[in-house]
Structures are given as C-alpha cells and as structure tokens.
Design brief:
Blueprint lengths: L2 E6 L8 H12 L6 E7 L13 E7 L8 E4 L2 E15 L7 E3 L4 E3 L2 E3 L2 H18 L11 E5 L4 E3 L2 E4 L4 H10 L5 E2 L7 H5 L1 H15 L4 H14 L3 H6 L4 E5 L6 H14 L3 E6 L2 H17 L6 E5 H11 L2 H5 L1 H22 L11 H9 L6 H15 L6 H30 L1 H13 L1 H7 L6 H8 L14 H16 L2 E5 L7 H11 L4 E5 L16 E2 L2 E2 L2 E5 L3 E2 L4 H13 L7 E2 L7 E5 L6 H17 L4 H4 E5 L10 E9 L5 E9 L5 H6 L3 E4 L15 E6 L8 E6 L2 H9 L24 H17 L2 E8 L6 H12 L4 E4 L1
Parallel strand pairs: 1-2, 5-9, 5-12, 9-11, 13-17, 13-20, 14-15, 14-16, 16-17, 21-22, 23-30, 23-31, 24-28, 24-29, 27-28, 29-30
Antiparallel strand pairs: 2-3, 3-5, 4-5, 6-7, 7-8, 10-11, 18-19, 25-26
Helix pairs in contact: 6-8, 6-9, 12-14, 12-15, 13-14, 15-16, 16-17, 16-20, 21-26, 25-26
Length: 806
C-alpha cells in the first residue's frame, strides 16, 4: 500500500517534484494510503489554440474502505476520486503581490484574466481524450492556472503562490464551485484503477502521433529560424515603434511576423497573434509550439481571431450588455414573474422532513390549467434543477431558487451579448473604443449610474464598484475599465495578419490598448482586400502620423511553383489586378489540372485523392498538409442541401443590411472517401465551436471564404467558376475599391461597375488558387461561363503545361 508518484517526459523547470510529493503525504496522508499521481510534462499535442499545457496532473484514489480524501463544502461532503488537471504555469508575476476583489485576480491593480484559456483547455482536453484517445466514458477536466507570486491565495481556476504544492491544490479544491471530483468514472472501479497507467500511456501515445510534424511544417519552421537571424533593425524596433511588413500573396509576410514573434519572446515580451481565419490560428500555433519548447521560452505566445478577441474584450468591458440592456431587462422580468409563480406553486408541496417527490410535483405543473406554457417550461426546468440539489430546508430552497435564476440570467446575458455583437459589430467596436478612450462619456451615454446590477451580471464586478446607495460612480467605473484594459496589455507585442483588411475602429482599439509601438502588422495591399472596401492605413492613429519601420517584401512567392504562379498572374492581368507573382524556381514546376466533366463521380474523386496523396507523401507531407478541399458555400448540387435563415446586420457605415445564414449538409463525396480510409476535418459545419482541433491525419474540407492564409501541397477547388459568378453578383462586389478613386497612385481613376464586380470576384478566386504549392485542381460547373472560357484561353496557349479532363 503506497502513494505512487510518476513523472513522465522529463520535469517542468519551475516545479519542485520532491516538495510536491511530500506535500501530498502531509496534506492527505492521514486518510489516504493508496493513490496514484502522474505529472505529465510538456503535453505533446495542442488541444487549444489559446494556450499550451505546461503539465498535466492526474490523481486517482483507490476505492477501498478507509482510503479517502474528503472536502466539506457547504452542506455536503465531497470526495476526491480522481482528477485530470491541465496546468498553465505563469511566471511573469513572480516578484509581484496579488490580491482578489472577489471577482478576479489583481496584480499591480490590473485584472489578470485567463478565463478564455481555462475554458478552452477544459473543453479542448476533454474532446481530445474522448475523441482521439477514445475513452469509453465521458471525461471531465479541471483546468488550473498557477500564478507564481509573493502572495498566497486561491480563486476559482487560479492558485497564486510561490510554489505549487498539494496544500494549495487542496485549498483550491476546497473553495472552487465543483461539487464532484471524478474526471473518469472507470478509474473508480478496481479494474479501472489498476489500468490507470495503461490509460495514461494510451493518451500519450495518441498525443505523440498527433504531434508529428510533416514536411511543410518542418520547412516553415526552418524558414522562420532563418528569418530570425537576419533582421537587426526589426529586432531593435520591437516595442519601440510600429513595424509594418508589406508584400504580395505568398511572399512571406506571415513568416516574417512569426520570426518577429519569436524575437519578441526572446526579448522578454509576451505575444498575441491575431488573424481572421480560425484554421490559420491552429496552423500558426503548430509552427510556434516546437520552437518555443526547443528554446524553453517562458513567455506566453497566444493566438486568436480578431473577431474572437474583440468579442471577449467588448464583453469584459460590459459594452455588449449595456447595448442590449432593454432586451435583457424584458426577458429577465418575464423570468422573474414566472419563477415567482412556480416558487409559490412548489413551496407548499415540499416536505422538508422527508425526501421530496419532485417527479410528482412536476406532473402537477404539467397538468395545471392555470399555468401558461412558458411558466410550465420554467417549472419543469426548476424541478429538474431541484432534483440535482439537496433541499433540506426553506432557507436552502430560497438559495437554490436564487442560484437557478442567476444561472438563467448569465446564460441570457451571453446569448444577448453574442446577438448584438454579430448584428451590430461596428457599433460594438465604436462603443468599445469610446469606453477605452473616454469612460466618462460612455458612462453618461449609457446611463451607467443605474446599471450596477447589469454590470454585475455582465462582468461579475458590478457590486464591487457601487457606493452605499448602490450606484456606480464615474471614478469607480473608470477604475473598472482601467483594470480590465491594463490586464490585457500584459507586456505584449501584438501581431496582426492581413492588416490591410482591418477596419479603422479595430486599428484604433488595438493602438489604444497596446500602444502603436507594440503593433507589428502584415499588409497585403488593396489587391488583397476581402472584408472592407477601404485599405486600412496603419500609419495614422487618431489622425496623427505614426513613426514606423516599414519592411517591403519582394513579390516572390515562397509558396507556389512556377506553373501555378504563371496561371494566377494570367487571371490577375486579365482582371487588371496588380499581382505579378514571382515564383521560386524549382526543377518541378508544379501541376495544373482543369476538370470540365459535368458530373465528377465518387470514383473519380477517390482516384484524384489517391494520386494527390501519393505525390505529397513522397516529400513526407502529412494528410493535413497534402490536400486542401475548397467548396462553394452556396452549392446546392451533389447532395449539399442548404437551409437559409434571414437576419439583419448593421454594416460599418451604420447602414441596415439584410443578411443570410446558411446551414449545409456534409459534402456528398466525403462518405465514399471515408469508406476508403480518409479522415476529414469538416470546416463546413455551421457551429464552428463543435469542431475542436484538426490533426495531422485529417484532410481539411472548408468553404472558399475560409481559406485565407492557409496552404497545402495540393488544393482542390470544386466549381470555382460558379463561386466566381456568385461573388461577382454579391452586393459587396459593387462596393469593391470604391475608395480607390481618391488614391492618386491608382493607374485608372475610373473603374466601371462591371470591372469592379469582376475584380472583386477574381480577388476571391485568386485567394483560393494561391493556397496551392505543387498542384492546383479546378473543377468547372458550367463550361460556357466566363471564368471557364478564360481557362480555355489559358489552356490553348499552354497546352503542354496543363492536364485537362473532359
């Protein structure tokens, strides 16, 4: 009988393993004599793009008589059976003191917020263990952020202390809101406990497989390493002045940003990399992770999409909630009224001296003629909620009722916040910037004096800033804002990819938070505009010229091979787009495949995949790197049904626009390919939060609109001519480059409406075609379409350089 401690994959530098082991015996040894503890250092695979796992602690207590660890929480005893704890270890504040205001951790009067990271780790590791390691029961994860500090405290998902021990882990478990400590049910059973080590090994074996890097990833890491040693002036400019990297598609702008990212980490900065593409966030993380680990860098390298960054920022500042205040108030009033009715209905029927029969009370609610349907629904949910609680007195019933309301309240706030963010994105940006730059004006405009309850709901901090009369005063509201904005700075350099497509308000917010000197931007020029009609001018902030180091990349593409670059230049020149790509010269010039067959059979696609996979496999590409499949999001043929929902958006100029949301069936060819052994990352699902992380043995299937910044050995473009026609007829096509008439450098100050629309569509098509490195496959929906006829012209003058399927 013993406490077995195991550390795997080396030891984490800042963790005292002897102290950790002895502290387990000190804290739990009186009642626990048989347990297993694993410390998994450097978890090999990425489960979240938000943060890395420094190490994972796995604890399991053998389920035998007299062997236990128990915590007395509120009105019940909670036993520790087993836990999976991924740990993020933060060293930035080792010499600082910390405190808590009851709603967060404060260091240097700034709010330190890792809630996004812990939430992402919780669901990311859970999804990974269940789906990839194939555990047969659902697992539950308890993420932890350890902040090294001169202070000692625990709060929600945080432990703040000088060293991590089982004394402060016990305090964390004692005070957090969890009411059950079982990560994996099977480990409670004798056979499960005995097989714990095998289960841990199976997770690590799968993680080792999923962390393998293929040819393209290795080449990218090699290029980043070469870039890092070249540029002394950029090295000196980091944190001193803005850096602007300009270049064409595939010219290495993103690689330059990544090399500067590592330079910043080496200099002691944290980094935040922002881009538009969720999949690109994953790719960039994959490039960074091996270098960070090989150099043992201790700073935090974070990756996010711009939209997700601004959503969490505006939510943390309360902007989303005060903008949607009226709707929230209406719905909460309804909930209060219905819950009061149900409480009055239920309370007299509960016998606190016996076990309440909640099922019987639920039936009475369902069959009561005096209760309306909405009230009955609340009643049924409330009874189910009571069934999970131990209601022993009227006082406990009142507390549980309040808890039920608060949970509903928080969910409603999140839904309303997301709705206003999606519908009025630019209005949210405008008010977020106002809140950051002039909180007094924001305070007056949105009547914050009367919004303390709403801010408490939105940010968990309203009551902290109230005076005795329950009013939030202006100076306290400014303190609330300053703490949240200051915590985000966190000694960061911010890297913005595709900066030409940022909106002015996005630019101003980033500059206001981090300072222009902490921004590094990749700018692809107006030819790569996709989101907006106006190119973002980063050299002017608040109307003032900003000193910046401008780095101009050559037009040479490090990505695509000569024949592919030649074809892309042909398309660009036809539509008067200034692309002029210069490909890196190679003996193998790449392959173009044009498929004009009206009905591409499943067997044809299977054969194509086998050929493309074999070509990429020769170079050591993993499946993820080998093939990128691009589909038309409006495609209704070949089994891809489309469900349409109408919506309303407020655009960047405060104009009300109709919008359409689409829900699609799976790509019809996928089932046949899966039967042949292919695995897919299906990025065409409507709810992207369901996707999780892609892995090396999965082929990406995404929409054209989601391909920016990605690359693959072979890119497969289905019905590209149809996609071109649809883009040409979008309302946004007529707005493309409408600001270019003001630009004196533009060759032609007049662009006809038809030219403008075609340039817009061609820009989208070129974005898709320049994803390929070696092979570009394009299928044609209508051989008589304009884009198809243009391809025919290219074929006629380059017949020996292309493969045509008819």
């Amino acid at each position: 009988m013993s406490i077995k401690f195991n550390h795997i994959n080396g030891q984490f530098e800042h963790l005292n393993y002897e102290h950790l082991e002895s502290s387990f015996q000190d804290r739990f040894g009186r009642t626990c004599h048989e347990a297993q503890v694993f410390v998994l250092n450097k978890f090999p695979v990425m489960v979240s793009p938000d943060t890395d796992i420094d190490f994972v602690i796995v604890i399991a207590i053998e389920n035998t008589s007299g062997n236990y660890i128990v915590f007395n929480k509120k009105s019940r005893s909670v036993y520790l059976h087993n836990l999976i704890i991924p740990v993020k270890y933060v060293t930035d504040f080792a010499q600082s003191n910390a405190s808590t205001d009851g709603k967060g951790i404060l260091i240097d009067n700034n709010l330190i917020d890792f809630s996004k990271e812990t939430n992402s780790l919780k669901f990311g590791l859970k999804r990974y263990i269940n789906q990839r390691a194939q555990f047969d029961e659902e697992v539950y994860i308890h993420p932890l952020v350890f902040v090294e500090s001169q202070s000692s405290l625990v709060y929600k998902d945080y432990i703040v202390d000088s060293a991590l021990t089982f004394h402060n882990i016990a305090a964390w478990l004692q005070h957090n809101d969890e009411e059950i400590f079982i990560s994996y049910k099977n480990w409670k059973e004798p056979y499960g406990y005995e097989g714990l080590k095998d289960d841990v090994n199976s997770i690590l074996e799968q993680a080792a497989f999923d962390s393998e890097t293929g040819y393209l990833t290795k080449k990218k890491i090699e290029r980043i390493g070469k870039e890092m040693s070249r540029d002394e002036d950029s090295h000196e400019a980091l944190g001193q002045k803005m850096i602007l990297v300009k270049g064409k598609a595939g010219s290495g702008k993103t690689t330059k940003l990544l090399s500067l990212n590592f330079d910043a980490l080496n200099q002691g900065f944290n980094s935040l990399f922002l881009t538009y593409n969720r999949l690109l966030v994953y790719d960039l993380s994959q490039y960074v992770k091996p270098i960070v680990r090989s150099k043992e860098l201790e700073k935090v390298a974070s990756f996010d999409t711009l939209h997700r960054f601004f959503y969490h920022l505006s939510k943390s500042l309360g902007v989303l909630h005060v903008m949607s205040d009226q709707r929230i108030s209406e719905l909460l009033d309804t909930l209060k009224r219905r819950l009061r009715t149900i409480y009055d209905f239920v309370s007299p029927q509960i016998d606190f001296n016996a076990k309440p029969n909640f099922e019987k009370i639920k039936e009475e609610i369902q069959n009561d003629y005096d209760l309306d349907k909405g009230t009955k629904e609340v009643g049924i949910e409330f009874m189910n909620f009571l069934g999970w609680k131990k209601v022993t007195s009227r006082e406990v019933l009142n507390k549980v009722s309040t808890e039920f309301y608060r949970i509903k309240e928080e969910r409603l706030a999140n839904i309303s916040a997301e709705s206003i963010f999606l519908a009025d994105y630019y209005g949210v940006l405008k008010n977020t910037l106002l809140q950051i730059q002039n909180s007094d004006k924001f305070y007056d405009q949105f009547d914050i004096e009367s919004k303390s309850d709403l801010l408490d709901l939105a940010t968990g901090a309203g009551h902290i800033y109230q005076n005795e009369e329950g009013i939030i005063e202006k100076d306290k509201f400014a303190e609330f804002k300053n703490r949240r904005v200051g915590g985000r700075r966190h000694n960061r350099i911010v890297f913005i990819d595709e900066g030409q497509d940022c909106h002015r308000l996005e630019k101003e917010i980033l500059a206001a938070i981090f300072g222009p000197e902490h921004l590094v931007i990749a700018d692809g020029g107006k030819e790569q505009l996709i989101r907006h009609v106006e190119q973002c001018n980063w050299l002017a902030i608040q109307g003032k010229r900003i000193p910046a180091l401008v780095k101009n990349k050559r037009n040479r593409s490090y990505r695509i091979k000569p024949h592919l670059a030649h074809f892309c230049n042909f398309i660009a020149e036809h539509y008067k787009i200034d692309l002029k790509l210069e490909s890196t010269q190679t003996e193998d010039t790449g392959e173009l495949i044009f498929d004009f067959r009206s009905d591409v059979k499943d067997a044809d696609v299977h054969n194509l995949f086998d050929q493309l996979m074999a070509k990429a496999g020769v170079y050591g590409c993993k499946e993820y790197e080998s093939i990128l499949v691009l589909l038309d999001s409006l495609e209704k043929a070949n089994g891809r049904g489309v469900t349409i929902d109408d919506a309303i958006n407020i655009n960047e100029y405060d104009n009300i626009e109709s919008a359409t949301n689409y829900s699609h069936e799976r790509w019809a060819k996928m089932e046949t390919l899966e039967d042949a052994g292919y695995q897919f990352f299906d990025g065409t699902v409507r709810d992207k939060t369901e996707l999780g992380m892609p892995y090396p043995n999965e082929v990406r299937v995404i929409f054209y609109e989601s391909c920016r910044g990605l690359e693959a050995w072979s890119t497969v473009c289905f019905n590209l001519d149809k996609f071109f026609s649809e883009k040409e007829n979008e309302e946004d096509a007529e707005k493309f480059l409408i600001e270019s008439e003001k630009d004196s450098s533009t060759e032609s100050l007049f662009i006809s409406n038809e030219e403008r629309k075609k340039m817009f569509a061609a820009t989208w098509a070129l974005m898709a075609m320049t994803r390929a490195i070696d092979t570009l496959y394009i299928s044609i929906d209508n051989p008589h379409s304009e884009f198809a006829q243009l391809i025919e012209r290219y074929i006629s003058s380059n017949s020996g350089k292309v493969k045509v399927l008819r």
